[in-house]
Amino acid sequence: MPHAQYFVGIDLHKTVIQICVRDAAGEVVVEERHRVRTLEDGLALVDSMNRWAPARLAVEAVGLNCWFVNACQQRDYDILVVDAARLNLRSCGKKTDRRDAQEIARRLWLGDLDRHAKTYYPSDEEYALRQLERIRHDLVGQRTHLSNRIRALLDAYKEAVPQGTLYGKGQLDDLRALRLAAPDLECCVDALTHALEQVQESIRRLTVRIRERAKASQVAALQEMIPQVGAQTALTIVAELGDVSRFRNARAAASYSGLVPRVSSSADTSFHGRITKKGNKELRWILNQVAVRLMSTHPEVRKWAEPHRRRMHANKVRTALARRLLVGIYKVLLTGEIFDMRRCLGAA
Fold first, then answer.
1. d(Cα 205, Cα 54) in Å, to the nearest integer?
2. Cβ neighbour number for residue 196 with a 10 Å cutoff
3. What is the mean pLDDT of residues 242-249?
4. Distance linking the first and last C-alpha atoms of the chain
5. Mean pLDDT over residues 55-75, rounded?
6. 6-116, what's its fold?
7. Is pLDDT above 90 for 84?
8. Which of 19, 48, 160, 229 is the most exposed, having the fewest neighbouring CB atoms within 10 Å of its CB?
9. In 272-291, which positions are buried (b, 16+ CB within 10 angstroms) versus exposed (e)?
10. Is 76 left (phi over 0), alpha (psi -120 to 50) or beta?
11. What was the pLDDT predicted at 348?
12. pLDDT recorded at residue 2
């Protein structure tokens, strides 16, 4: 790609796009603010950026930039997607769209973004897979919330709560047949029951789709090799990790999940604290869920965890196991080797 003559910082919002362009000397040559109400308006703006070619573009990794980044990539623009948290634009003083675009363009010109703020931009298929399992996860949380609200209403009047989960067909019929102390309460329970039924149906449909997508080679391999890993768990891990070849090593993969300790160093002294929790929280959550199941059911894992639990809290042991599992899964996805639990635990 030709050497860039212009450096374009873009602050992207739902209907407003702020642009700052710096030349090869770092001077601001263009500042524009565009109102973008439709996709056609946005694509026309992307086409107009060709007047600065050859140029480098940088935009924050926000949830509404997919159309913009895809349009730039289709036109072979050199675009960089950067992590908003690492940009830390609030530290630059008063935060406005104009200042944000100026700072992004300045740091792009300096080359700072490539070293410190560049982030991974998933393909459309990877993004869709992530949304598939994340939305199911959110719906399961909504189902739990609705169930708890119904139980709270019934407990307030010592009404018998249907046995088992409340979203089964028999339990839903029992809830509809309930008669409470006031008509308004019955209306509330009916509304919650209807919402619970709709959420459960949505979860069922997503679960069917996830099982279909889990037949892919990498997902199916994880299901077969790792104990306590089903279709939902395997698909979540594969989707959230994305292309594992982008990580320099296993430590980088662990850092991406937030399963690395905070480090404070001064001279020859270093202190390692709690995990950073900076990174992909969905990946960190699912690995912890697998670790909990393995610590309670897998004999080798229980044997490994027993001496650790004598000297540290169970949550720390679980987190350590989650990181070990991530390293093992990273190696499986990168090299295609067979997952070995003993090797993962450091016993082989």
1. 47
2. 23
3. 91
4. 47
5. 91
6. Nucleotidyltransferase; domain 5 (3.30.420)
7. no
8. 160
9. eeebeebbbebbbebbbbbb
10. left
11. 61
12. 64
Inform me whether the pLDDT recorded for 272 exceeds 90.
Answer: no
Output 273 or 234, whichever has higher pLDDT. 234
Q: What is the mean pLDDT of residues 150-172?
A: 92
For residue 90 the two structure tokens come to 């609030």
Show the tokens assigned to 85.
Answer: 């948290």
Mean pLDDT for the chain overall? 91
Residue 1, pLDDT above cutoff 70:
no
Q: Per-residue DSSP letters for 33-48?
A: EEE--SHHHHHHHHHH
Tell me, what amino acid is at 323?
R
- Please tell me what DSSP assigns to residue 338: P
The DSSP letter of residue 182 is S
Least Cα distance to 42 among 64, 21, 20 occurs for 64
The whole-angstrom separation of Cα 105 and Cα 26 is 9
Are 72 and 79 within 8 A, CB to CB?
yes
Instruction: Give CA–CA dist 139/201, Å, rounded.
Output: 10
Please state the domain extents for the chain: 6-116, 124-213, 218-344
Residues 74-83 pLDDT 10s = 999 999 999 8
The answer to whether residue 151 scores a pLDDT higher than 80 is: yes
For tokens 């202190």, what's the residue? 271
Q: What are phi and psi of 209, to 5 degrees?
A: -65, -40
Give me the numbers of helices (H) and strands (E) for the chain, helices first please.
15, 7
Cα-Cα-Cα-Cα dihedral sign, residues 187, 188, 189, 191: positive
Q: Determine if the peptide bond prior to 162 is cis (ω within 30°).
A: no
Confidence class for position 261, pLDDT limits 50, 70, 90: confident
Strand duo 16-23 + 28-35: pairing: antiparallel
